[in-house]
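pinned: reference chain
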Amino acid sequence: MMKQKLSLYFVMGSVDCTKDPLAVLDEAIEGGITMFQFREKGKGALIGVEKYRLAEKLFERCLAHNIPFIVNDDVDLALTLQADGVHVGQEDEAAERVRDRIGDRYLGVSVHNLNEVKQALSARADYVGLGPIFPTVSKEDAKQACGLAMIKHIRAHEKHVPLVAIGGITHQTAKQVIEAGADGIAVISAICRAEQIREQTKQLYEMVMDAKQKGGS
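pinned: its structure tokens
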């Protein structure tokens, strides 16, 4: 079930959008996203009440379409909203502590290598987000790209871990990522910066599902 939810995972905050974030999410939902992460970080990011209000409106849209709503690195916000889960990076609040705080809600952890995957699983993570696979412009603090080889390496040792790949993934590379062993792709700019969000999201979804059906994952 989690592996299906990860198929097309859209990550977004207000700073990623060139137009109204609510309109962007609406079009992405119509295009077929299977999971959503509210990631309000970076220069100009909303804080406090403004951040909460945007999160609430985005959550309502996901709720209406039965799309899991994950909050990036803000357990308090996730619990207040009663969101579906929380995603944390290696420099954020410790995954073990987050698991204790959120109970049985979804827990996702950003990883860059096999050792971090094992640590995430010991913290009872529901899925891992591996990346960046390719160089990316969406995250100011992005680490060096780990490439498709890291997906294969992790999959060889942890066959069953739900794994979503993130970082510089485009329409041109989505198929390769699934074929390497990822259960899905997580994208920011491939949707946020698309000229035709609905249509280009639909194309991404179809590419991923086609690759998964052909044995990628």
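why pinned: The chain is about 45% helix and 15% strand. Residues 2-213 form a domain with the TIM Barrel fold (CATH 3.20.20.70).
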